[in-house]
Amino acid sequence: MVGYDPSTPGSALTPEEAALAGSAAGMVTRALISPLDVIKIRFQLQIEQVSWRNRQGKYWGLWQATRCILTEEGLPAFWKGHVPAQLLSVCYGAVQFASFEALTELVHRKTPYNSQTPGVHFLCGGLAACSATFTCQPLDTLRTRFAAQGEPKMYHNLRHAVGTMFRSEGPFTFYRGLTPTLVAVFPYAGLQFFFYNILKKLLAHQDSKSKGGLHSLVSGSCAGVVSKTLTYPFDLIKKRLQVGGFEEARMKFGQVRTYHGFVDCVVRIGREEGLRGYFKGLSPSLLKAAVSTGFTFFWYEFFINAIASLKSSK
Hints:
Number of strands: 0
Distance between the termini: 22 Å
Helix content: 55-70%
Order of helices and strands: HHHHHHHHH
Strand content: under 5%
Shape: globular
Number of helices: 9
Radius of gyration: 20 Å
Structural class: mainly alpha
């Protein structure tokens, strides 16, 4: 079970064990969902409408974008930015799950609330994600820059990207989009843990014969879709802000914009692109959320069970 379980105190994870399981889960999941992430980012950054009916921009739909990227940039393009993305996933998974396990245990020991209730998981999941986001935001910005660039590449490798961005834009550029990220990540992650808790218990109650891994996968996928839909506009705004100062590499994809902060970005997207503008890339994002959240919880529980088995065998 994800989070501190007071019914089995002897098997509680240490922060190091939770971090190890979380980083391993993030690493495996990232390798599987990278193509969807690249397509989602391309959609989010496109100013023109993403629509089959009104084909103004470079990308019109999921399959068309897939073919376009494959034809113009080759198969490796779907793993652009994979190194910073993997570093992000490993770091994020470690901090998030270690924080979550520690917070749920703290709630159990210091408050009258049961650490396995959905409300506690919402609060602890949101706080854990905020901690992980602040820690890993520079890697997220780098991942977005790599996924957004076309050919020829503006950044040759991770070291070149860090040096170029630091010299030309300053140290704070690595935290572009932090405000909408923090605003969005608390409810997003909180809802993930909230719905995962409810759905996992519901499935276990209705179908006790099925293996826990299937329950984790289904519960995580459903939780990811619901939470992503509710908080998606903040993710899009974050991506727009992260590529500020990166306009030269975006010219060949269509129109570009430079936003002066969170509020300016919100207002201009609404005025220029309408309400649908806040949901560009939602289709690949929901598909990615279902796969990534499902696999994250699946692999996390897989690794914590493996760790528990190793501990019990000693």
